[in-house]
Automatic annotation (TrEMBL):
Residues 202-254 form the HAMP domain. This is histidine kinase. InterPro entries: HAMP_dom, HATPase_C_sf, HATPase_dom, His_kinase_dom, HisK_dim/P_dom, HisK_dim/P_sf, HssS/ArlS-like, Sig_transdc_His_kin-like_C. The chain crosses the membrane at residues 23-45, 175-201. GO terms for cellular component: plasma membrane. It comes from Paenibacillus spiritus. It is a multi-pass membrane protein.
């Protein structure tokens, strides 16, 4: 990781890194969500309190107006009309003002007769036909008040504006207390969230720090170290993957070491024979038969060396995607007959019978030499690991309309399930005592894949092995594969 992540001791600043980002983002998200909830809650509480006062006044107005219109006894122009009006519409703890339609105060329930005009928005709203409402500060006293106004009709015409004025200081005080309580609760929630976010960050960062430390050791070549800990979810997958990587590297190194040891032996043996016979022949004094035998051994061991080197070169080309295929029509039956002739002498030494059963007219699109290399390797392995006097069956038949399958099966020693999963890995050898580089099947696999085919193996220890190779028929392949495309794919 680019920056080591650590929680500092109290009194220090938390270093930048994943832990800090997790904590800050988590707190920020919760803070914004909490702020939104509290704002909505406080607005709802304020609206509820203010609407309760407003609804109480409007309900009183409606009831008083109904009573006043029904039982009004005093004439509108009577000197007692305004007094009766105040008595009929008066509401406790609320100042009632009687205004003209243009907002000039006529009288009020407090007994004071200020000569002033009301200019707040509730009066025009009432004159317009609705119940006016205004919340603000009372001029002079600077007190928070709510005003509710309504036009009173007398005799079918608008006569006065009844304006109720009540203090909302108590409501605002309650709202302030609720706000403080909400802030306190929010602060407590944020403290819990902060503690939880630190725990969450540590649960992520500490395993990552451990994994990073172990990975650094692996990068230095210490592949025997492993990531330990009971991790969960994606971190557990990451730890498992790195442990598996280290295990595979160890295995690959072991295979590489075994390969080097094996190939050194494979190269030394023929070189020793060549060197020995060369020195013997140089000394002279041997009859023609002995000379012929020595030259034959030198030729045989030279061919063996050439085969080993060519196998290594093929593997190198495949690894670097430099192998070029010379594609063309290849008759499967003819190719397999040639394979049988090539390995017949080796099979005869172990008294193994080769049985070929191939359909006529099966033609695939591929590189004849490379396919021959594949089937020679498969047949050679079958002979190598078969019992004396056993049979090796080679079948070739049309699998689908566009595919042919070649099956080579034996009743030899077989391969264990553990080794079967790795038998096509490079450098892997089931039995290193049998010689070879351990590259034959790995090369064969890649050659078949370059042909767009499939190579699969089935085996049971002590029962034998069955190798299946699937290739595309020439008629089907000609439209989708050509030499230029295959060469581009391997360059």
């Amino acid at each position: 990781m680019g920056a080591r992540l650590q929680v500092e001791r109290p009194g220090t600043i938390m270093k930048k890194g994943m832990r800090r980002q997790i904590v800050l983002h988590y707190i920020l998200v919760v803070f914004l969500a909490l702020l939104l909830v509290e704002v909505i809650f406080l607005l709802a509480i304020r609206t509820y309190y203010y609407d309760s006062v407003y609804n109480s006044i409007t309900t009183h107005i409606s009831a008083a107006e109904e009573f006043y219109q029904k039982y009004q006894l005093t004439n509108e122009n009577s000197p007692f009309a305004l007094e009766e009006l105040l008595d009929s519409f008066e509401l406790s703890n609320t100042e009632l003002q009687v205004l003209t339609l243009d907002g000039k105060m006529i009288t009020n329930s407090t007994g004071f007769q200020p000569d002033r005009t009301i200019t707040t928005s509730d009066v025009p709203e009432a004159v317009g036909g609705s119940i006016g409402r205004w919340v603000g500060r009372q001029p002079g006293t600077n007190e928070n008040v709510m005003a509710v106004s309504k036009v009173l009709q007398i005799g079918g015409r608008d006569a006065y504006v009844l304006r109720y004025l009540t203090s909302v200081e108590g409501i605002n005080s309650n709202l302030f207390n609720v706000t403080l309580l909400a802030i306190g609760i929010g602060g407590a929630v944020m403290a819990v969230v902060a503690s939880f976010s630190f725990g969450l960050a540590n649960s992520i960062v500490k395993p990552l720090n451990n994994i990073t430390a172990v990975s650094a050791q692996m990068a230095k070549g210490k592949f025997d170290v492993r990531i330990k800990g009971n991790y969960r979810y994606e971190i557990a997958d990451l730890a498992s993957t790195l442990n598996y990587m280290a295990q595979e590297i160890v295995r690959s190194n072991q295979i590489k070491d075994d390969f080097i040891s094996s190939i050194s032996h494979e190269l030394r043996t023929p070189l020793t024979s060549i060197k020995g016979w060369s020195e013997t022949l140089i000394s002279g004094g041997y009859d023609p038969e002995e000379t012929k035998l020595g030259v034959g051994i030198i030729s045989k061991e030279s061919n063996r060396l050439i085969g080993l080197v060519e196998e290594l070169l093929d593997f190198s080309k495949l690894q670097q995607n430099e192998m070029r295929l010379s594609m063309g029509a290849v008759g499967i039956k003819e190719l397999l007959q040639e394979i049988v002739l090539n390995v017949w002498a080796k099979a005869e030494k172990k008294q193994i019978r080769l049985v070929l059963d191939a359909e006529e007219g099966l033609v695939v699109y591929g590189d004849a030499n490379r396919l021959k290399q594949v089937f020679l390797n498969i047949a050679d392995n079958a002979i190598k690991f078969s019992h004396e006097g056993s049979d090796i069956m080679i079948h070739a038949y049309r699998l689908f309309e566009d595919q042919v399958e070649v099956v080579v099966s034996d009743t030899g020693i077989g391969i264990s399930e553990e080794h079967l999963a790795r038998v096509k890995d490079r450098f892997f050898q089931v039995d290193s005592l049998n010689g070879g580089t351990g590259l034959g099947l790995a090369i064969s696999q890649q050659i078949i894949e370059l042909h767009g085919g499939l190579l699969e193996m089935e085996s049971e220890l002590g029962q034998g092995t069955r190798v299946r190779v699937q290739l595309m028929l020439a008629d089907a392949a000609s439209g989708t594969i050509n030499t230029e495309e295959k060469m581009e794919g391997t360059e």
